[in-house]
Design goal:
Layout lengths: L1 H8 L8 H14 L18 H23 L17
C-alpha cells in the first residue's frame, strides 16, 4: 500500500533516514565508478555521527509507532457472499 501511494503521488518515503540513505547512495556511486572525493564531507558523512544516527532512528521509530497505533484500530471487512442466492418463491 505504501509503495502504491509513493508511486501514484510521486512522493518520498516519509520515514527515510537521510544520513543512512545518503550513505547508501554514495556507496552505489562508488561501486558504479564515480570518483572518490577525499577531504570533502558530503551528505553521507552525517551517518558517521552517532548523535545524528540516534536522532534519525528515534524519529523514525516514533513515526512507525504512530502508524502502528493508527492502523491497529482498523477492522477487516466481513467477506461478501460470492453468489447471489435467489429468494425462495
Amino acid at each position: 500500500m505504501i509503495l502504491w501511494h509513493m508511486l501514484s503521488k510521486d512522493a518520498e518515503y516519509i520515514w527515510a533516514r537521510p544520513a543512512l540513505l545518503a550513505r547508501k547512495f554514495r556507496s552505489v556511486e562508488l561501486r558504479a565508478g564515480l570518483p572518490t572525493s577525499h577531504a570533502w564531507r558530503g551528505t553521507a558523512f552525517d551517518y558517521n555521527i552517532p548523535a545524528k544516527r540516534a536522532e534519525e532512528r528515534s524519529r523514525v521509530e516514533k513515526a512507525e509507532a504512530a502508524s502502528a497505533a493508527a492502523t491497529s484500530r482498523w477492522r477487516t471487512r466481513p467477506e461478501r457472499p460470492t453468489t447471489v442466492e435467489k429468494a425462495a418463491e
